[in-house]
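Running log. JK asked me to keep both predictions on one page so they can be read side by side. First protein, sequence followed by its tokens:
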Amino acid sequence: MSRDLRPLFEPRSVAIVGVSADPGKWGYWFARDAARGAHRRSVHLIGRSGGELHGLPVLPSLAGLPEAPELVVLSVPAAGLEAAVDESLAAGAKAIVAIAAGVGHERERAIVARVRAAGAVLLGPNCLGVFDAAGELDLASNPLPSGPVGLVSQSGNIALETGLLLADVGLGFSRLASIGNQADLDVTDVLRDLAAHDGTKAIGVYCEDFRDGRAFAEAARTAGKPVVLLTVGQTEASTRAARSHTGALTSSLDAVDAACRAAGVHRVETPRRLVETLQALLAAERPCGRRVAVVGDGGGYGAVACDLLGAHDLELPVLSDDVQDALRSSLPPTAATANPVDLAGAGEQDAFSFSRTTRTLLESGDVDAVLFTAYFGGYSSLSDELRDRELAVAGELARAAHETGVPLVVHTMYWDAPPARALRDAGIAVYRAIESAVDAVAALVDDVQPPSAVATLPDAAPPVAGVAYAEARASLAAAGVPFGAARPASARDGAVAAAAELGYPVVLKALGTLHKSDAGGVVVGIAGPEELRAAVADLRRRLDPPGYSVERMAPVGDGVELIVGAGRDPRFGPVAAVGLGGIYTEIFGDVAVGLAPLDVAEAERMLFSLRGAALLAGARGRPACDVRAAAEAAVALSRVAAAYPRIAEIEVNPLLVTAEGAVALDARVIEIDAEDAG
């Protein structure tokens, strides 16, 4: 449910508590910035010193105000935060910004309970502040640029650097909320507000702790505007840093990526990439496919761009004869026209060859996007005449992109020259680094893919029958995971009787061991009773198991062994995985992850995304595997994981997939806080 953030971003009155006459104090900065907006709203300054600050009177407390302050910014130490919150609520505040760090979780919870009981909202604590460009509300300590980007950030410094990077490319913030510890308002609350805000055209997020990961993903999926996420958690060190910074409980990046894929969110690794991706996605044009043309006035960058584009799995088609003929008609004989297109110095004789060539490509129908990489912009430094000519070319380039509706991304080493700035002002993304320009093209292509859906968790089911091996098999089989025939056995003669019923060859498994293969607890290919008796005796001597499972031998040589499993992320809940299985799971680490429960389409996509997917399609003359059957098994297992919150881990390894179908050859279930069981 969306919360009302109007008093936070559009307050009719503001009070700053803890103002200071010391220019090095937060209370000074907030008083100064609030005073600048006094022509838009009433501003009240509260401080013990009294007197006047920035042309406004300083009052001793909120109690004496002539009106209820809709927004109160608390620039007070952590020790005084609870009392300041109580005073703010008593004065009628509907939104509170708490700057202080080091409040502690128990005190935070108590404060939030009082804030929510009063029908108010709290931003922070441990935050930078709040900003709204249209309302001239700038309460974030440092001057911020205005523009079309909404940002929600757990880090104040990352928010400030993002603002500097946006300003470098002529962009800025529509709104900014520094959420800090997210004691009350969290990333999803602010994301929903930014999605509904007309002045916000794209949304940036820096988040260490998603609280309710699926709610975040669903809010991003339905935002109706691009969302770019910067997060952490790839290393143990970054996880420690996040925990010490905001008390964040980070999620596995596999889980985050699964949620981003479902929601259509672009994930990046640095503030610079956050801004570069936002810059690309603010363009009006979107590609219709993955075909890209590269055009430039030198071969080096064209070749580099092609390799980088190929690494993104983007297509670089050879241009049609008609298009190449059109290009040759206005280019030197030495020009390359197949793709990449190299003007071979034509720009030095005629700057408009840049725009003519680019328009030809944009209009060709042969490609879905054009990457322009050139010395363009550098000529401006040579003479006023060349600068004016390049500015005119910049106008032609932008017009061509807007008129054709085909995306144009520009790379130039002179990215801040007047022609480059003119391109940016016209809505064309311009980059200084070739890899950034290529990443921008890839982001535009990926943005066309519609988000699938964020898997909805079912109502919690009763506990599974048990976590022992036979019980795990039974629970998964009842859910639709196919297993081969098996019989339990408690002694040597019982094992022989079970094998006689199943038919040889059989597999013998020692129960009571979680990783049976690693412990030597699995004996395969047993051809007759004597071999079986010997195997039972050996397992009893080495492992002394409480019992055995005798199973019909599967045709393992005829198929591919996969692993299908699920775990539980602290913020995103049950997460399903498929990968290359058997004994090679940990060796190759070829695994794809999705939010559980999966559907068949997502499970198939995950299987085909594996590096070893070629094995499923048939290799070295072997028949193709029944991928649909493997996907259905993964879906069935994922539904069990999603339905039973007590399950910490659930796994089938291996799942044997052949041309005839899929069969699970082993299973294990681990409950939360339960002892491992086989």
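And the second, directly underneath as requested:
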Amino acid sequence: MLRAEPAATRAVQTRIRGGWVEMTVATAALVVLLLGFRSVVEGADWFVSTALVAVLVSAVTITLRLVGLRRAVAPVALVAELLVLSWVFVPSSLLVLLPTLDTARGLGELIERAGPIISEEQAPVAPSSSIVLVLAASFGALVIVLDLVLRLRRGVPIAGVLLLAVFITPGLITGSSPSGWLFLPAAVLWLVLLRGRTAVTGASGPARQAPAIVLGAGGLVAALLFPVVAPDIASVASAWGKPPPQVFGRGINPIVELGTNLRRNNPVTVLTYTTELDDPPYLKVATLPDFTGKTWRPSDDYNGGRFEGSLAIGDDIDADRKSTRVSILQLRSSLVPVPYPTVSIRGLDSGYQVERSGLTVTTIDGDVRGETYTTQSIDVLPTAAQLRASNSRVTPDLERYVELEDAPAVIGETAREVTSDATNNYDRALALQSYFRSGFDYSETAPVADDYDGNGLSVIAEFLTRKAGYCVHFSSAMAVMARSLDIPSRVAVGYAPGNAEGLENGRRVYSVQSDNLHAWTELYFAGVGWVKFDPTPGVGESTAFAEPTTPTNGDPVAEGTPEPAPEENARNPRSQDDTAAGTEAEQDTSTAPRSAAAVLVAMLAIGLAPGLVRRIRRGWRLRRAKHSPEPAWREVEDTARDLGLAVSHADTARGFAFRMRDQPGLDLDAVDRLLTLVERARYSRTGGTGVSAVADAQRVLDTLPAAAGRRTRLRAALLPRSLGPRPLALEPAADVAPAT
């Protein structure tokens, strides 16, 4: 009994080996699913760049497989992707068009900058170059993985799992259900892949088509129902895309979480307070004394630092205890907002512990919501003269606060330039504070869009050039510049004073919003302790202490006294310049035009490279054919293979020449003469070397394509099969059959 199944299987495998239609369909599905990331990244620039890179990598894999270089697909595709990413994102680092070590460093820095954005930002994030690079590189790599998977016998189901993972990823990030309108076309394209694998040649009629129709209809129904019946994935969403569960939690670096919460779109009232202090206080939650060069962080030994509070204050310094009553509303945190330096607390029901470094307070049960408590803090009021006279010597227990390694030169140079007229640490601190508050812009979006968000040394160096950022950048920069001048410094995190809302029992009530989250700088002065300086423009008030007065000419301020900074609104100036700064940054960092140009150049190179290599090989062989017929015969065989004729390693010269005789228009006399030369070279005692075979070979090469159609000749010129290895068996190249 004759069995059709093996023949059908061979036909299917031939189509699979061709694979260019499969790869095209899979890439189209991937690009469709890329649209789902619109909930993760703003704008369209990232989509254009990412889609172009994915299409380019797909074109590389298809081209290599069509010319038979299957083993080189993954490495060559990776190299092509790296080249395009280099041309788009770090073009200035290239040597002509080739990557250098600076290219690798530049790409590495961009990827490193994407880390804080991914871990801190709330989706949708700005389409900064670092984020677009990560997306483009990821989707390019996904194309390569899909190509490798589709070469497997059961690769289509695995490809479906990969596509499903891409589909649900934006939902995992944002916490919202993915759109069914994206799932449907991607599912249809996957069914096309599945249909190509399950098709049987010669099948026809309703009985044969019914299973495919049922499978397709069932798949489409599932595509429509899946997003509806799928469980809510918000509970497993990552921190990127939604506010973290705690503003400040145990084990969390507060300065990292600060960036996330500042960019929340729905500010809420987190606490209210009344105070006996003359000025509304900053409420500290954490002190960050240790600087790693990449970030500020809390100390590992909170109880190992020097004593603070009243023990640090000299007898001649004016200081008094004042109470502040705080009511926590919508704040989930293990850290308790208190004025600095707080020396006692009453009313915390959950219990608390005070840490020596920074006198910060932590609740025992880890949640301060609903608490109302009263603090006693010291209102320290030294005069400017006392601060100028403070001993500036760095004692051993202060050395940790001036540690600074491998700082970019611009940081120290700028600090010395700004403070060049100052002769003491207090005036240096005022000069630094004034430098930031008068010459920089407040923006929460510009650092993200321009890829310098964070608080490390490289970020600070970039911030000093860009002159736009938010409190993390200002406080970090001032603290690092102070250390470059041997002034002990650290960063404090908490809340700016907030806004007066009314009266309660004769005291002003202040309301603090979630967008009053803030970071500021603290500098140490012997006999006074840690003094707050706020370099962020438009937030809180700048620090300045009473200057000595003279009655001369009725002027109450002594000559040479620094001009006090103007009073500023206590609210963050987010609405004033964020939109303009963010828009300008996005325009400056657009990658879509460069991506289009780079991909166009790369596609041209990909399209022309196989034919160019083939022409170079032909010229080389014909030059060698002046002395031996063997290179000429190899060229004739490869040209025949490019035109679709059967060629294998098992061929003899006469057997191959016999099959070629069926080609209309072929110069048979030239074939016979060339065959005679080849057989003489291979089998005679004297050999055939030293005889030119160029003329006969050229005649055969000119007449061999005569019977081929225009499409076949074009395919032979652009995508020559002979670049790949020859088949062992006598059969046409595997990709001759159309992959449907």
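Observation for JK regarding the second prediction: The chain has three domains: 5-237, 254-587, 625-723.
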